[in-house]
Specification:
Length: 330
């Protein structure tokens, strides 16, 4: 395996916990949770694993500025801004949405970390503005490094390939997993595809025998299968010889995202409430709330057997609970 530049600032390994009360309430499979909301950087989240590789690559290239984009309450941008602050880099964020009079939640944290915010009302303009911002930073001598949406590049995907290696080590050591004979499913939220691609790659490289199921937050099943298989294939070249992944190698469910990105429905409200009420565990309204809502519906439909063990991979995002857009709607 190739030697890959990586920084080590995430709090790893993240714990695995049982969810016995929620499992009993739903009457379905045994439920566990992998707590990537505890990766440590700026309230944690899944992007921290990706940023260990992305920031290392940026520094190796001599970058002085990280540039990225997302929604106004982007968890990815919050962690990117924090990583930039930690390593003495400037940060510019192109965020779609109307700037509020009083910033809250992730947006407030972006500003605390010193990020320059460029707000645009129209999400369809984000790619153009992001490229213009990058080009201007180049012209101004700021030596920018473009962090892709969600950290979802072949480099970023490596964070979750190695997360599978971490999980495999925990499966050997944790009493509960030895007693249960391993995991049947990993379930998580998927959107830009980087986490999904990393898990699919790690599954192949490190020999995870269970199934990897992404619940779409906003993209079609066809798009996810194509995007994730391509990313996983490209990321594999960074480890050694290319592994070709086909769309058929990717499991994705897009049944729960019809309402649109960031649109809170009764399903997300119920999921957030159930995890809080039965396990004292907080989800976010956009990503883990939707992914958990999908998992809960699949449990109720009998998709998993009662004898199976399902690991919900918690990708973080709880600061969004305090955003004005969601705070009074949960």
């Amino acid at each position: 395996m190739k030697n890959i530049p990586r920084l080590h600032f995430a709090h790893l390994p993240t714990p695995i916990e049982e969810l016995p009360r929620l499992s009993a309430h739903l009457g379905g499979p045994r439920l566990l949770v992998k707590r990537d909301d505890q990766t440590g950087l700026a309230f944690g989240g899944n992007k921290t694993r990706k940023l260990e590789f992305l920031v290392a690559e940026a520094l190796e290239q001599g970058a002085k500025t990280l540039i990225s984009g997302g929604a106004l309450q982007s968890n990815h941008c919050r962690q990117t801004a924090a990583a930039a602050a930690r390593f003495g880099l400037d940060c510019i964020l192109v965020l779609n949405g109307e700037m509020p009079d009083k910033p809250s939640a992730n947006l407030l944290l972006d500003q605390l970390f010193g990020a320059q915010i460029i707000a645009i009302p129209d999400r369809n303009e984000r790619d153009r503005v992001l490229q213009e911002t990058f080009d201007k930073a180049v012209a101004d001598g700021r030596k920018p490094y473009l962090v892709p949406y969600g950290g979802s590049s072949p480099t970023g995907a490596l964070g979750y390939a190695f997360a599978v290696e971490e999980l495999m080590g925990q499966m050997k050591d944790l009493r509960v997993l030895k007693e249960l004979g391993g995991l049947d499913y990993i379930v998580f939220g998927t959107s830009s595809g980087g986490t999904h691609a990393g898990l699919v790659l790690g599954q192949r490289v490190f020999g995870f025998k269970g199934k990897v199921l992404g619940i779409s937050i906003d993209e079609s099943e066809e798009w996810l299968k194509s995007r994730v298989s391509q990313l996983a294939s490209e990321a594999s070249e960074k480890l050694g010889e290319r592994i070709r992944f086909a769309p058929a190698d990717v499991a994705a469910n897009a049944d729960y995202c019809a309402a649109g990105y960031g649109v809170l429905t009764d399903a997300e409200r119920e999921a957030v409430t159930l995890f809080a009420k039965y396990e004292g565990l907080l989800l976010d309204p956009v990503y883990t709330g939707r992914a958990a809502a999908g998992m809960i519906d699949l449990i109720r439909k009998g998709y998993f057997t009662k004898e199976e063990t399902v690991l919900f991979w918690h990708t973080g995002g709880q600061p969004a609970l305090f955003a004005e857009k969601y705070a009074n709607k949960i």
